[in-house]
Amino acid sequence: MGSWKFGASAKEFERFEEYARQFDLLEVDLEKAEKLGFDLPAVVEMIRPFENRLYSIHLRYGPDKEAGLDGIDVSLRDLEFFCQSGLTDELRISTFVTHTDSPREYREFEHHLARLGAAAAQYGVTVAVENLSDRKNKTNGYMDPRNPRKLAEVLDVLRNPHLGLCLDTGHAIGNAGLTDSLQWDTDAMRRWIRHVHYNDNVIREDKHLPLGEATNPLLIGNVKYLLENSVHDGVAIFEHKKLDFALQSMAYAQTAGYRGIAAAPIK
């Protein structure tokens, strides 16, 4: 049975020090950093003073058209930047998160996961693959990366201990009208869950709401049961656009019985 802790994605970079005061474990979002004008060396300099709070890096996943790279290749490039330079040891980071956002990659999704797994094994880190938000149904019938249960089944085939599943609860809720993406009580899910992006949502949206904001009855019960019955240890990251929302989610989670006996999953 895994042991889980809470943390937060520090998306408001100007408030990074405040995140570090409020949460013991932090995730750094490179996609957000790029939008704010930070290159990778600048990100490193910003987060270096907080090495005792860092837990995970969310790799960039969008294609780099200028370099002719698909999303998986961009993620691999970022992973190599941190691993080949020794930054993973210096910053004490061993978990990376990514997902694909390229329809070309859906056709060979298992192949691309295998590539990620090979790189993770080479560097001795864990790459957690996140179920994506796909409100426009871009997957077009290929292997469905929207569905965390199906992602776990692919990981079951690959059997690479350096790969894992990142369950994004908001994405799963947003896609619930398109897939059976809220059915998490499976052996594969319990085997491969390594990381969580924890937020609330409504169907067909990607709002990253604080927990309880949409009062989705599936969310708390199913996540709690999954984490308390998982094989691996991990961290549930409150992933919101604002620190105040992450604090709101933390307060809500602490009242939801996470310290006690696992609740039965809601069907």
Provide an overview of this structure.
An 8-stranded parallel beta barrel has the order 1-2-3-4-5-6-7-8, surrounded by 5 helices. It has a single domain, classed as Divalent-metal-dependent TIM barrel enzymes (TIM Barrel), CATH 3.20.20.150. Helix 8 links the parallel strand 5 and strand 6 (163-168). The chain has 267 residues and is of the alpha/beta class. The chain is built from 12 helices and 8 strands. Helix 4 packs parallel to helix 7 (109-123).
Q: Which regions contain 5 or more consecutive residues with pLDDT less than 50?
A: 139-143, 259-267
Radius of gyration: 17 Å
**Class of secondary structure makeup:** alpha/beta
Percent of residues in helices? 25-40%
CATH topology: TIM Barrel
In the CATH hierarchy, the architecture is Alpha-Beta Barrel
Protein traits:
alpha/beta; 40% helix
Fold topology:
Blueprint: E1 4-9, H1 16-22, E2 26-29, H2 30-35, H3 40-47, E3 54-58, H4 71-84, H5 87-91, E4 95-98, H6 103-106, H7 109-123, E5 126-130, H8 148-158, E6 163-168, H9 169-174, H10 187-192, E7 193-198, H11 217-228, E8 234-238, H12 243-254
Parallel strand pairs: 1-2, 1-8, 2-3, 3-4, 4-5, 5-6, 6-7, 7-8
